[in-house]
Amino acid sequence: QVQLVESGGGLVQPGGSLRLSCVASGSIFSLYVMGWYRQAPGKQRELVATVTTGGNTIYADSLKGRFTISRDNAKNTVYLQMNSLKFEDTAVYYCTVGLATPIYWGQGIQVTVSS
Which pLDDT tens digit goes with each residue over 75-84? Predict the structure, then answer.
């Protein structure tokens, strides 16, 4: 069983930055694709970004250039650096571990962009 614990969310003004972290339990961490998804109020859950064990990344087209995903296998941790945040980035962000699709999900962490 893999457990994921997210941190780093909160309230930020438009144009600001936040860095989300997710620590995974279990020694299988290094074998899996790590990712972030988000769900805004009234909307479906959507992919934000994923990163493979080798560091290859995939981003939602709308977020390229503002968000950066990275991982530290030694720390069992994946990060999401979010810059130039917009009102529409307000959502619950979920850390995931999986293969082609997520298998395990974190509990989610709130990110609110508001002035």
Answer: 889 999 999 9
